[in-house]
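Bench notes, afternoon.
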Amino acid sequence: MLINNIFFRISEAAAISPARRDRLIFVSLILAGLANALVWILIPLFFRQSKEFVVLQYNIYFGISSLGPWAMLFLLPLSGLLVGAVNFSLVFHLYLKERLLSLFLAAGAAVFQLIILAAAVLIIYLNI
């Protein structure tokens, strides 16, 4: 019940907010969505045949610092999805009150998704 109420309020705020007509917010939303979708596609594309553990984390000082099943890699795009949902719900909610903050949140969400995409590509590179 609480989740439905929260989802309804977010979708209502996005539907009536003038932020949906702002070009920078729209481009950030599309870029973040495409980057997140690409990570969701790349992970099973490269790892679904893997039976053994894969490198989940790499550190330049110590080398491989975490191994695990490839399904744990889905935490990467899931975290991006959650951060993006929170950021864009705040963007649509705060647009009229704090336009500059909304623009920073939208750009930050897109940059965060691009960093997650880069991390996923590097993890794929390490495991090939």
